[in-house]
Write a structure and sequence with these properties.
Helix content is 39%, strand content 16%. By secondary structure, the protein is α/β, with parallel strands linked by helices. The strands form 4 sheets. Strands 1, 2, 5, 6, 7, 10 and 11 form a 7-stranded parallel β-sheet that branches. The protein has a two-stranded parallel sheet with strand order 3-4. A two-stranded antiparallel ribbon has the order 8-9. Strand 5, helix 4 and strand 6 form a beta-alpha-beta unit. The longest helix is centred in the C-terminal third of the chain and has 19 residues.
């Protein structure tokens, strides 16, 4: 089973009309059918709301100016997931039952919130957890909780309260998109499960959107997983990205983390960009990626990178 730790399915459907059932929209990669063909059995499906200050590439007609507007948008995405045939995995026991009975063609999801502004106050987090939310990334750009991509800064007072509420709810922290100071603050404060859903190696592609070797090592030290994004600008500084670049980041992050058991994929293949900017044009290219990874890793290690590392992480981390 392939596990993809970052897909913006709900946002694509609500904001841009690219529905999940059926075949992918023209020029795009991800849909229910394309995941089925590739053997993807579990995804981390995001609740993402685009802020009004988002850059042009992510600014659609569906943006928020206030926390309440962000809440309404994320709620619409959650409702979409509940009506499009995605089984939501909420607990360790549900995960184990699903993995044991999985057959190719089945696709389930764990809910991940990318940017925490839809949580109007930390006191509201329990309601989101009751509806299935299991992973929270406090930042995208700057949020009320955290500095983020191209927006330096640490956790805010509200952000500290959010992490404490997350710990009480037994949720997972995703540091992708968090600014360096916010990551440092989180490392000092957070004692729960931690991961990076879709952040590549900064030594290979400079910029604050990527993670440092030190961050990779610390996440691995806490038994977390590092998900590799397949977005072109996350994979290489210039030129067209391919699955060779995914392998390059896998090798680098495995070394930084102390082993490939801390590496997975979080493709972000539908994150507001079309297949021109993706490392692959079709989900069936996952098979090509596996063959390329096999030149550097054992069969068991490749199976881990493609899915079982995330499954073992969830077994340790879900309530």
């Amino acid at each position: 089973m392939i596990v993809d730790a970052h897909l913006d399915i709900g946002w694509n459907a609500i904001a841009d009309g690219r529905g999940f059932p059926g075949e992918p929209a023209k020029g795009y990669v991800v849909s229910h059918s394309s995941l089925q063909r590739a053997g993807v059995g579990l995804i981390f499906a995001t609740l993402y709301a685009a802020p009004g200050r988002a850059r042009r590439s992510m600014r659609t007609r569906f943006v928020y100016e206030t926390a309440h507007e962000a809440n309404l948008m994320a709620t619409a995405e959650l409702n979409y997931y509940q009506t499009c045939g995605l089984k939501l995995i909420r607990s360790r026991s549900e995960l184990d039952a699903y993995v044991r009975g999985w057959r190719r063609g089945q696709v389930a999801a764990v809910l991940l919130m990318e940017g925490a502004d839809p949580i109007e106050t930390p006191a509201q987090l329990g309601g989101w957890a009751d509806r299935g939310l299991r992973i929270v990334g406090p930042a995208w750009g700057r949020t009320r909780y955290s500095g983020g991509t191209h927006a330096p800064g640490g956790l805010t007072v509200l952000g500290v309260q959010l992490l404490k509420a997350m710990h009480r709810q037994k949720l997972i922290l995703d540091i992708s998109h968090m600014a360096d100071q916010a990551v440092a603050d989180a490392f000092e404060l957070w004692r729960g499960p931690i991961m990076s859903s879709h952040s590549n190696a900064r030594e290979l592609v400079p910029g604050d959107r990527q993670i440092t070797n030190a961050t990779a090592a610390e996440i691995a030290n806490r038994r977390g997983i590092l998900g590799i994004s397949f977005y072109q600008h996350h994979l290489r500084a210039k030129g067209k990205a391919t699955t060779d670049d995914v392998v390059r980041h896998a090798l680098h992050l495995a070394k930084a983390a102390g082993g490939p058991e801390h590496v997975g994929i979080g493709t972000d293949l539908d994150g507001g960009f079309d297949s021109m900017y993706a490392a692959m044009r079709d989900t069936r290219d996952f098979a090509t990626l596996q063959r390329k990874l096999r030149k550097h890793f054992s069969a068991t290690q490749v199976e881990g990178i493609m899915g079982t590392n995330w499954i073992e992480f969830l077994r340790r981390s879900l309530p």
